[in-house]
Design brief:
- It is a single chain.
- This protein is of the alpha+beta class and about 240 residues long.
- It is about 40% helix and about 25% strand.
- It has helices spanning about 5-15, 20-40, 45-60, 65-75, 105-120, 150-160, 180-190, 210-225; strands at about 85-90, 95-105, 125, 135-145, 160-165, 170-175, 195-205, 230-235.
- The strands form two sheets. It has a four-stranded antiparallel beta sheet. A four-stranded antiparallel beta sheet has the order 5-6-4-7, with helices on one face.
- The longest helix is centred in the first third of the chain and has 19 residues, at about 20-40.
- The radius of gyration is 18 Å and the shape is globular.
Length: about 240
Amino acid sequence: MSGHSKWAQIKRQKGAADAKKGALYTKLGHAIALAVREGGKDPAMNVKLRLALDKAKASNMPNATIDRAIARGAGEGGDQQMLEEVLYEGFAPGSSALLVEAVTDNRNRTNAEIRRIISKAGGSLGSSGSVQWQFESAGEIFLTTTALTDEQELLLIDAGADDISRETEGTVVRTKPDKLEDVKRAAEKNSLAVENAEIGWVPKTPVTPKSDAQREQIQCLVATLEELDEVTRVTTNAAL
C-alpha cells in the first residue's frame, strides 16, 4: 500500500494508553458533531455519520460521549462549538506532498500550529490547490485478516472493490467513495471483520524518499501531526 497507512494509524490509536483516550475521543466527537451538522442526526440517511459512529464504537467511545457529540452537532444543549473542517496542503522533507485534514473551532490557532510543525520538520505549508491534485478521493476498508479466499475477493470486487492489498496485519480494500458502504456490507456479510472504513485520499503517484533518513523524517512529521487533537487524518504521497 503506497502512501501513509491510515490503517497503521488506527492500530496505534487502539493501542494507546488510557491517558491518550481523551484526545482520541475529542477527534471522534468532532467528526460526529460535524457529520450531524452537515447531514442530520439520522445515521440511516447520513453516510458520514454512520462511518463516524462505527469508528467511535470500534474505539470503545462511551455512549454518553457519543450522545453529547450528536447533540452538539444538532445545536442542542449549552455546548455550542463552531466547528469547521479544514484541509491543509503542504510539502514534507524532500518535497513530497502532504494533506492534513482537521476539524477545529479556531482556524487561526490550528493554522499556526500545523505551520509550525511542518516548518520545524523541514517542510512548508502550501496554498490551496498546491498538492491536492496529486491525490484522489477513495474509500478504504481495513480488514483484520490477510487470509481472504478467492471467492471472498470476487464478492468484494463484485460489490465495488477496486483494489485489494495485503499488509502485515490485515488487508486494505479500496473503493470509489460511493461504493464504500456496499463493499463494507459485503465484507461483513461474508464474515470478514472490518477494522475501519473511511473516505480519504490516495496518492496518484507514490514518491520514494531519497534516503532512509528522509523516510524517517517524513514518518516523524506525520506522527507529530496526527497527535494534534484537531487533526483527523494525514496523507502523504511518500512511500513509507
